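Can you please make up a whole protein chain along with its backbone structure tokens because I've never seen that pairing?
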Amino acid sequence: MPLIPEEPQIHESAQGPRATPASGRTAPTPRPVPGPRPVAPPRPGRPGPLRPTPPAQRTPHDVAVAKPGLPGPAAPAVSAPAPVPAAASTTPQIQLIPASAAGALDAAEEAVDLLLESGRAPGEVLVITTGEHHPWAAHELSFGEAAYWAQHDAGDDVFYADANAASRAASRPVVVVAVNGGSAAAAAEALPLAHARAGALLIVCGDPQQINSVLGAGV
């Protein structure tokens, strides 16, 4: 048989694609790279896709932050403590009304009237006699000791007591002493006791020399 010469075989190079396209063939056009896909419009009757909302930045309103160069919030002012008042004196004022033994009781009555007119309450006044009882005390004692001291405990009226009963009487703001007789020992005992019972004022009606000698030694 006659030999047919073989067609030469063309082998493509393995180094890469051809730089020149083969005749009769068109080089493929590069396709664009797809970008991010747009969000599809929501369908009628269906909500669109929900996107998470970033949390809002919270600023505390109850904390004051000082900015550079600006003064911070002022501290609350602290008031200074009030001064403590000095303690009031417990020594009563002494007032002397010169009177004889016979007129000491009348002088004491006038002093009581002036005290009540000036605004003193009757229950703030105690009257002590060194001699005879005051007529009011004698009247109340006629009903018995219990009724007499019940008037004292009520504390709503002027109370009259003699030197012997004065030690049982309670303290009152004003004490009036009528040195209307009695022994010198009775006066010497009644005046210091009246001074101790008086809270603010001690009024003594009697002989000034006798009163000064007793008060000077006993007070």
